[in-house]
Amino acid sequence: MTNSVTSDRIEKTIELRAPQSRVWQALTDHEQFGTWFRVKLDAPFVPGETSTGLMTWPGYEHLRWTAVVQEILPESYFSFTWHPYALDPSVDYSEEIPTLVEFRLEPSTTGTRLTVTESGFENVPAHRRAEAFLRNNNGWSQQIKNIEAYVAAHP
Questions:
Q1: 87/13 Cα distance (integer angstroms)
Q2: pTM score of the predicted model
Q3: Close Cβ partners of 134 (under 8 Å, ≥ 6 residues apart)
Q4: pLDDT tens-digit map of 28-44
């Protein structure tokens, strides 16, 4: 796994020992995504639509998942926007500019190279920017391991 971090961008790359089509399914089938990401999504991902659900990560089960699917290019690119580290249910984050999460897939010699990028942290309000960045940087490190384990266990 490789990491690239700047003040407004997190990027994680991993080589997965799985065909690109398999990794694609794990990313874009809402039930499979929910299994490794630990979120119970209400419906399939649809470009331009809001994706909602409940987190299933232990300790975070009370939190809603809300993201807007931006683009789905079969077996190569999937993106959504969301409000990073928006954990306080009493706060309305809807007026904040969301960050962009992008998943890029490429064939590699061992299977599939997956790159996850989250950008736009410069638009997160200053009072929560550093914490959101730190938490999401750590979160993507974990999530990249989760998808790796998921595709290995579900070929």
A1: 26
A2: 0.94
A3: none
A4: 999 999 999 999 999 99
